[in-house]
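Why show two proteins at once? Because comparison is the fastest way to build intuition. When a single record is shown, students tend to memorize it. When two are placed side by side, the eye starts asking what differs. So, the first record is below.
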Amino acid sequence: MTASCAVAFLRQSSNICAMVSYHNVISRAGKKRKYGTGGRPAETAIGVVKKKLVGVKGGDTKLKLTSAKVINVLAAGKPMMCEIVSVKENAANKDYVRRNVITKGAVLLVKGPDGSELSVRVTSQPGQHGVLNGIVI
């Protein structure tokens, strides 16, 4: 592996420090910092509603939705709450369909208020916003 390829590969690490090359030796420009670590993914599941309050930089807080039973759906300009049956498709990870993990852009199979089954695309970020919103497709 050439030095330029190694630098490009090592820059994809999860920490913010840049990789530099001094005399053909690749090393970090600085050390690992706590703010560069990130957080654990929420991986929202189907079940009883559970939310987790997480502290973030600057003393602010973020609400992570860890599991949900219903989704707020906008159909024909009219909002309604629908019960989630299963995850039909998830572009983030194909394994999330099997595990029924909900992320933004996932297609869910839901039961409408009148009992009909609908396909809904998630438009909110449940791991960031703490709520599930979607639109009928």
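Second record. Ask yourself what differs from the first in the token line.
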Amino acid sequence: MSIYEEIEIEDMTWDEERLGYTYPCPCGDKFFIGLEELYDGEDVAPCPSCTLRIRVIFEEDDLPEMPDEPPDNIGEVAELTVSEITISEQQQQQQQQQQPKAENNNQQDGAEDHCAKIVEKLINAVDEHTLPITLQ
């Protein structure tokens, strides 16, 4: 795994809503790493829009405390993610309708498996109050 850059956590921006840190990516999006990930020893923040990753340099003692309760907006985040999944499924269905039936059946099985995994991750994240999650 290649690392684009090493960044001190003090140079990152705290995101109260998402309970994590962001840092600008050259692609225009932002790298993100959650507070829970940092407490779990993770130090690599991916960019959701490209393949770049940064290594976050930090001391656990300097991190904010983990909240006892999930954020107030956890339902909104879950709803947004479900909406994104629904839009993605609609796009896949439109693409499948334009392909020959033999290919369509194979791709539909793969898309259903992928969507099932995403929904399972989402349900687990809501149950464990660990949103936002990374959907791959």
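One difference worth noting in the second protein: The longest helix spans residues 101-128.
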